[in-house]
Amino acid sequence: MRTAAGLFLFTLAALSNPTSPAAAEAPVASVTGGSIRGLLDSSLPGGGVFKGIPFARPPVKDLRWREPQPVQPWKGVRDANRVSASCIQPALGNGRFLKPLAERYGTQYNHTPITISEDCLYLNVWAPQWPARNPAPVMVWIHGGSNTIGSGGENGYDGAALARKGVVVVTLNYRLGVLGFFAHPELTRESPHHASGNYGLLDQLAALQWVRQNIAQFGGDPKRVTVFGESAGSINAGLLLCSPLSVGLFQRVILESGPVLSLAHHPVAREKGELFGESVARSLGAPANLQKLRDSSPDSVVNAAREAATHAADPGFVLDGWCLREPPAKIFAEGRQLPVDLMIGNNGREMSVFRGPSSSGSANRGLAGDSVKETIRIFYAGSASVVTGLFVINNVLGRTESADSWINDVVCACPAMAMSLLNAGTGHPAYVYQFLRSIPGKGEKTLGSFHSLELPYVFGAFRKAAWNWLPFEPVDYALGESIMDYWTNFAKTGNPNGPKLPNWPAFDAGSQASMEFTRLGQVQARAKSRPAFCDLDVKGLRARLK
């Protein structure tokens, strides 16, 4: 029999030892389908982490190319302590992008092989407090990767650093490539909505519906949800602003390096998407046989899509009449997009990573002057001569910063400005940024603020394997704290500003103000920071709709 003194010492030891069963009990939550057991993570003191939570039934066999279905209930407590498999994609995943990028910096990306499966519709949650107390704002991340690679479970998207700022963070998977974006007339006929094509977007909507129904169990406020994404994830989020299926699912959006109004990302008519789908089906020897299409292995479907793409462009998104009913440009121009608070921006040299080293040793090949002129002609039609006069385009070959600047403006900056101006018509603010920080490398040093470089700052992921190959400096860690403060403040109130932060003015037609995260890692507001020809982009958008 224990003495009173012995019981006292046992209790004291339990309270002081964080690894004791009493002090380190794994968090348990009740969600759609049943109970789940997460884990305690030293990177999120006082919080709870849940990984690999199913938000839809596995889209396999007869559920391939169908809208996501509700999860099947399970008995007992399901472990939610590791990320799920990634959706079907090339074996290297994002390593296809990061590995050669690291080599250009004279270092090495330590890639861990990924597990892929069609059974991939899972999400992850970081709760800042456990047990949950006061409702906290929610940030839902949609990863990028051209809608062909990537996963919400990548270590570079670990939500702990953001959650430490007082928000609940959710990351998710969605179907990719031909398994996520595939239209076919037989699929359209069997659909109760007479729609096919945008299954990856429907997965994202299903995850947001799960958040609305379950996030309170993790201390999240379902009425304060911010969707944020980068590259293709940003484009997806922008498309969700145009979908009638999004109503009530989120109140704010952060779009990083992927404005949906860019001419490069317009959905096509369903019939055009179906033509590509028929080409894929013919390659599989099943032009109108859905059962054979669904019985085909994922590899054979992916290979058939690759073969079809040699003859016709994969259209990606389609106007299916259900998820996406009208072109985003038309919806924004008429002010009918989802009324949300908006933060939007881009990096200074987005395209620098997509061109290989030149023979002269500069980091990227520039664009030939004739190519630039032709692209300006296509994008700006009657205003082409004005735009051409505003850019240095002669002898652009080798003058990569001029080319990158122009591409950024056409693909990102001007469409972002158009979205910001048009969003003002909904009565909600817009905040615009430019990320210009440049990391010097051991090898070539002219990549600048390349596409995706803001991500380790947004997630505080400098030491994660996805990014620890870059030679970050103390100024980068400080800049990351500021960026995370801005992002989470926006999620909390719709305004990124807060104590000890430089003021970030809202964007309007008069000031056209933006926040710059500078090349040297400083933070400063700027007025009239967009090129003059961006006004032509907004006018041209409206003109194209007449």
Automatic annotation (TrEMBL):
Pfam families: COesterase. Residues 27-523 form the Carboxylesterase type B domain. It comes from the Bacteria. Residues 1-22 form the signal peptide. The keyword Plastid does not apply. Keywords: Hydrolase, Signal. The keyword Signal applies. It is an enzyme of class 3 (hydrolase). Its EC number is 3.1.1.-. SUPFAM superfamilies: alpha/beta-Hydrolases. One of its GO terms (molecular function) is carboxylic ester hydrolase activity. Belongs to the type-B carboxylesterase/lipase family. This is Carboxylic ester hydrolase. It comes from Paludibaculum fermentans.
